[in-house]
């Protein structure tokens, strides 16, 4: 019937209009979600203690946050003096651990007296005493064998210019603050703006006692950046399950994480950090095979060692893993790496949401 045919045609037109409107609304919502993703991307920073996670966060402040103010730098002064005291105590205690004698009995006794009287209220390092200690041949021998000790990588930066830290008007430089070591406790968020929009870095303590807090940070992150201290291949660890090696500890932790369901739908980026120290150790003749017999490449070859490291860690993850070789105290290097990473990361996230 003509009337029925007309009604059917009107119904089809109505449905078509509804479908087009629905399609436009879906496209609009997808575009809104895409814009929101580009505005705010959460990145979770993980890794073992002393891997350089917090240094990466400081670099984001320098690169994207306008840097540290003079007042913020002054607040690092006590942290730096505490780092100097801790480093010198590790070196001094290392004399007994490595069975090394200092060159001066008088200096040995003076140092023993100072550390015996040390208490938590002391916030300033005795720079004249420490300058004499750093010049002592016994302390220098301990420093040369520091891979047997738990010595912060920033120790040499401070020890080689101790005099300037004693000045009343001393204000830490950017490099001083980047070397400053203050263990991360709990979960901290750092927000910064880039040309891609807003990024949020979530920094979680890397010490074993802090790792139980990691699970609470996984839920809303788009990607995980796992920081590995690549120079730790010969470094002693207090973790018995890693065989006493800090790089093995990082590998075991990464492998454990990759087996968990929390990372199943997350992008993973590996930062093989401390490339400068790795290069330095290899140039000094430090053997990778001595600590990792499975390494089959040539000794002293930086590219071969880095390639092996990347393969070693990537083998722990069934999904796609990006990796970069970094030096966290080098601002230009971190800026370059992050610029390379963020576009790939955002595009990967868009593909995962069907928005590319």
Describe the structure.
With 356 residues, this protein is of the alpha/beta class. The protein has 13 helices and 6 strands. A 6-stranded mixed beta sheet has the order 2-3-1-4-5-6, with helices on both faces. A hairpin with a 2-residue loop joins strand 2 (187-194) and strand 3. Helix 4 crosses helix 7. The radius of gyration is 26 Å and the shape is globular. The two termini are 48 Å apart.
Question: How far is it from the N-terminal to the C-terminal residue, by CA?
Answer: 48 Å
- The helix content is 40-55%
Rg from alpha-carbon coordinates:
26 Å
Along the chain, the helix and strand elements come as HEHHHHHHHHEEEHEHHEH
Number of strands: 6
* Total helical segments: 13
Global geometry: globular
Query: Runs with pLDDT <50, length 5+?
Result: none
Characterize the biggest β-sheet.
Answer: 6 strands, mixed
Q: Estimate the mean pLDDT confidence.
A: 84
As laid out across the biggest beta sheet, the strand order is: 2-3-1-4-5-6
Structural class: alpha/beta
